[in-house]
From TrEMBL:
GO terms for cellular component: cytosol. It comes from Saccharothrix coeruleofusca. One of its GO terms (molecular function) is RNA binding. Gene3D superfamilies: 3.30.1330.30, 3.40.1280.10. This is RNA 2-O ribose methyltransferase substrate binding domain-containing protein.
Length: 332
């Protein structure tokens, strides 16, 4: 039954199943999610909980001729790209290891790496109790995604707020930002910093078509990328479709739009897409856009840098809704 249920849930091949412990409950109870049929048994999925590194789906209320109640926990392994920020190069790795606020999952060091630089990394990892794995230089290059600057070392840093978009949508985030075709690392980093500071509930950074969250993005974000509420999916088009299917209006910025970001009717839940400065909103995302907004500008200025536009948009949204839940403002 477990394999059939996992297949119907669309969990993919890398699924481990174990019986739920007696009295075990989800840490985030949700409303009724759906009814599945596996073999002779109808199974109601009610509770979903997320823990580090995997998603736990509690399946309860199995109506069966053999048992009145069946409970199982299906653990779905999430891609490392959806739970870690990978930094590469000697200096970025050492900075991550030396920062007590960051949790480093592991360090990958090229087999041929020797000398003072390698020793410094090994010593830093040892002080933090971080495991160091050896791999071929080619393997490190592939995983780093930057063969010219990896310097034979990378580190996976835990991003506690990073998760797949489809899971985040179950929590009904109020404000979501979607990046579409933004390939300049500096812009992505500044947007992550700005949107996080404004209190946006999620920033969708697709795995394809947008700059990867690498050391350049981390540097541009002033380190905020590690704790930003990053939501992952394959492409911006896929994200737009998921957001619309979940009932979110999708607003896009356009200098020629008739509605202003300062006066449009802001729904309780909404998503906003930012396109690239050269080509704007992609053809894959455009059909899903439900409204176009403009940032009024004076003195004949036609447009803003995408990171600047993101700042205007995010802080206007939060101005309308009130200060972020964790604000630096002190009440008298």
């Amino acid at each position: 039954m477990s394999a059939q249920v996992a297949h119907q849930l669309g969990l993919g091949p890398q699924v481990a199943v174990r019986p739920a412990a007696l009295g075990e409950q989800a840490v985030r109870p949700q409303e009724h999610i759906g009814l599945l049929t596996a073999g002779q048994e109808s199974i109601t999925v009610r509770d979903v909980a997320q823990t580090r590194g995997h998603v736990t789906i509690i399946i309860i209320d199995s109506r069966s001729t053999r048992a009145k109640r069946v409970r199982e926990t299906v653990r779905v392994e999430i891609s490392p790209k959806d739970k870690f920020v990978t930094v590469y190069g000697r200096k970025p790795v050492l900075e991550a290891l030396d920062d007590p606020r960051l949790e480093v999952d592991k360090v990958l060091l090229a087999e041929g790496a020797r000398g003072p630089a390698a020793k410094e990394i090994l010593d830093a990892a040892g002080r933090r109790g971080v495991r160091v794995q050896r791999a071929t230089a080619q393997r490190v290059k592939v995983l780093a995604g930057n063969g010219r600057h990896d310097q034979g070392v990378l580190a996976d840093v835990v991003a506690p707020r990073m998760r797949p978009l489809e899971l985040a949508l179950r929590d009904r985030p109020r404000g979501v930002l979607l990046l579409d075709g933004i390939t300049t690392p500096a812009n992505v980093g500044m947007i992550l910093r700005t949107a996080t500071a404004a209190g946006m509930d999620g920033i969708v950074v697709p795995r394809r078509g947008v700059a990867s969250i690498d050391p350049l993005v981390v540097k541009s974000s002033a380190g905020v990328a590690f704790r930003a509420p990053v939501l992952r999916c394959a492409t911006a088009g896929e994200a737009a479709a998921q957001l619309r299917a979940a009932g979110y209006p999708l607003f896009a910025l356009d200098a020629g739009a008739r509605e202003s970001v300062y006066s449009f009717s802001l729904p309780s839940h909404a998503a906003f897409v930012l396109g690239s400065e050269t080509s704007g909103i992609s053809d894959e995302v455009r059909p899903h856009v439900t409204g176009w907004l403009a940032i009024p500008m004076a003195a004949g200025v036609e447009s803003l840098n995408v990171a600047s536009a993101a700042a205007v948009l995010c802080f206007e949204v939060v101005r309308r809704r009130g200060c972020p839940r964790e604000s630096n403002l002190r009440t008298p």
